[in-house]
Automatic annotation (TrEMBL):
Entry-linked CDD domains: DPM1_like_bac (cd04187)
Key words, A-Z: Glycosyltransferase, Membrane, Transferase, Transmembrane, Transmembrane helix
Spans traversing the lipid bilayer: 231-258, 264-290
A GO cellular component annotation in the UniProt record: plasma membrane
Name assigned to this protein: Glycosyltransferase 2-like domain-containing protein
Pfam family, one: Glycos_transf_2
């Protein structure tokens, strides 16, 4: 009887200090489990010795496989590239910094065997994290949940299990700047959660600070992927600005009746309506125009320059014909 194959996807950039220990722990975990494993590392144009470490590791263990991108793709795109190349029945993606313990993988797989297509991990404690970043992260989740109908699980990051069919549905979505954390929830199917304590980084410093660009980008992607609220707010702003015009005109009429100046009231009415409504509308609609632009320009989300032990899967092959 053919045993199940589990694919572990690890998208990273410049993690030479963490890779040896990560591979050691992954190997120990996999050797103690009944399933077959493949470890797919997506090297996002690292400029350290990460690639050399993976080459050495693959020479000792063919389960170690890796992709190297031709240009920096980004964390989410790296995960998608790894999912596209994976051949497992269950696919798990996680970070390379050992904050997410490989020893937790059998617990995720137990839920998968019980019929779950998506298994999230939820952090009940986060050691060694910047408190400012944690506060900003929680506020970002709350904003996304407030603006959208779907509820994104707070403290559930990029450490998840997907069944083969869930991964195929995720890969079929034609989205650039994908908010994978939200899309994994949006997929539906039977889902479960596994709680754990996130550890401090094993080595090195985080690539993301409290105010890093990717955090803001992820928040915007989460809002514009799942919410039409900014468009509704644009309409409300226009209606509110229009409603103020007769009030300001009435104030101008009262001032004229009392012998006062009216030009200030008239200018305020015109300026408030035009500037407030137009600028709010342009800002909100502009977010959606950016997303439309990224979709229609048709650029691939990843480009693979090298593959060891894996077939190169172009993004367009996954997405299919337009």
């Amino acid at each position: 009887m053919k045993s199940d194959l589990v694919s572990i996807i690890l998208s990273f950039r410049n993690e030479e200090d963490n890779l040896p220990e990560l591979i050691r722990r992954l190997t120990l975990m996999a050797d103690s489990q009944p399933e077959g494993y493949e470890f797919i590392f997506v090297n996002d144009c690292s400029c350290d010795r990460s690639r050399e470490i993976l080459v050495e590791a693959r020479a000792k263990d063919p389960r170690v496989k890796f992709l190297t991108t031709a240009r920096r793709a980004g964390p989410s795109e790296g995960v998608l590239a790894g999912l596209a190349a994976a051949t497992g029945d269950a696919l798990i993606y996680m970070d390379c910094d050992l904050q997410d313990p490989p020893e937790l993988l059998p617990t995720l797989l137990a839920h998968w065997r019980d019929g779950c297509d998506v298994v999230h991990t939820r952090r009940i404690a986060r050691h060694g994290e910047d408190p400012v970043r944690m506060w900003l992260t929680r506020r970002a989740y709350q904003i996304i949940n407030w603006t959208s109908r779907g509820q994104m699980p707070i403290e559930s990051g990029d450490f998840k299990l997907l069944s083969r069919r869930a991964a195929q549905h995720l890969l079929s979505l034609r989205e650039h700047d994908p908010y994978i954390r939200g899309l994994a929830v949006w997929l539906g199917f039977k889902q479960a959660f596994v709680d754990y304590e996130r550890q401090a980084r094993h080595c090195g410093e985080s690539k993301f600070t409290g105010l890093h660009r990717n955090a803001f980008k992820a928040t915007v992607a989460g809002i514009t992927s799942f919410s039409f609220l900014p468009i509704y707010l644009t309409l409300c702003a226009g209606l509110a600005g229009s409603a103020l015009v007769p009030v300001l005109l009435l104030a101008a009429l009262v001032a004229w009746g009392l012998g006062g100046g009216v030009s200030g009231w008239l200018i305020a009415a015109l300026a408030f309506f035009l500037w407030g409504s137009v600028m709010t509308a342009l800002g909100a609609v502009g977010l959606y125009i950016v997303r439309i632009y990224k979709e229609v320009r048709g650029r691939p989300r990843w480009i693979v320059a090298e593959a060891e032990g894996l077939d190169i899967v172009p993004d367009r092959a996954v997405m299919g014909p337009s």
